[in-house]
Amino acid sequence: MDIDAIAAEHARRLSGADALIPRPRLWTDGQAGTPLRARDGLALATRSVVRTGTPAALWRPLVEYRLDVRLAGTDPSATLSALLARWDEHLAEAEAVDWDSAAVVTRPSRDTVGTSELLRRGFAPTRVLAVRPADRLGAGPPAVPGVRIRHAEAADLPTLVRLRQELHSYDAQFGVVTTRPDEHDLVTTETRDLLADADSATPSLWIAELYGRPLGFVEVQLPPAAKWVSEYVTADRVGYLASLHVAEEARSTGVGSALAAHAHQLFDEAGVEAVLLHHAQANPRSTPFWYAQGYRPLWSSWYRRPAIG
Ligand SMILES: CC(C)(COP(=O)(O)OP(=O)(O)OC[C@H]1O[C@@H](n2cnc3c(N)ncnc32)[C@H](O)[C@@H]1OP(=O)(O)O)[C@@H](O)C(=O)NCCC(=O)NCCS
């Protein structure tokens, strides 16, 4: 099958699976990466690296090998299997056996063809980019008396660093976020940078206080800051909920729902049509929480870590 026919068939299958998935981009000649071919499919294998000692290293393995696939033909599962086999030969040359490496395949969550092929090759569904269209209703607990949401200020730096480190350690259990020896310094740098907009009309960090005690925070990106994520959804104005965390002692009491309701109000006021967020699929707290708040899976990232078992 020729390349244009594969791309057209792949796009047709995706648009039938999920109307919120944009038409896949065409790879341009000279695009970085290694093209791989199967009879009825094609893929682009890429590699991305972040350096130790940078805030980016907190949230992912240092080296990620990624495969972007286009599947067609009467048996797209077999096509994926053939592409994964080619990719494994390619990865074997990279000798990516270190824990700080991962092989990652990101697929539209509702395009489920080939799921068993991914499982067979040792991939696990690990990270989800979830979406909440603006008109969705959430069904969290009733509002809690005593919860107050306010802007984070420069003086909140120690509280935010503590809460963000708690979030980092909790999320590190689920396979993508990675524990680092210089974590405290990196989280402090990252939080200080985020607090730089604390005095603006649209601050990104908000704190939940229960009777004056700070017990949780939410970080939001309104347009245009969330532009980087808009290519993943068919909506013009997109917001990104970057993180939300509630101190362990205050969980399951409505604080997280109060923060989420506040974030959704900010997105509504900014005319956002769809809010996106990442969460770890195996997180037993965030997964049910977000789906009760009106989110649903849009893109699923399958990880194998290390990249070669
Ligand atoms: C995920 C997290 C933010 C949720 O915050 P939270 O304050 O615990 O959540 P809430 O109390 O507002 O909402 C959950 C509670 O609402 C209630 N609830 C949920 N749906 C409900 C419904 N339909 N009707 C009535 N009550 C409901 C339940 O009591 C539920 O608690 P339970 O699941 O333990 O039974 C928090 O658990 C947390 O910080 N986890 C660790 C870090 C993390 O995972 N962060 C997210 C990263 S993406």
Automatic annotation (TrEMBL):
PANTHER family this protein is in? AMINOALKYLPHOSPHONATE N-ACETYLTRANSFERASE-RELATED-RELATED (PTHR43877)
Sorted alphabetically, the keyword list is: Acyltransferase, Transferase
Q: What Gene3D superfamilies is this protein classified in? A: 3.40.630.30
Q: Point out the signal peptide segment.
A: none
Q: Which Pfam families match?
A: Acetyltransf_1 (PF00583)
- Chain ranges of the N-acetyltransferase domain: 147-309
What is the taxonomic lineage of the source species?
Bacteria, Bacillati, Actinomycetota, Actinomycetes, Pseudonocardiales
GO MF annotation: an example: acyltransferase activity
Q: What class of enzyme is it?
A: transferase
Instruction: Determine if Flavoprotein is one of this entry's keywords.
Output: no
Name of the protein? GNAT family N-acetyltransferase
EC numbers listed for it are: 2.3.-.-
**Domain of life the protein comes from:** Bacteria
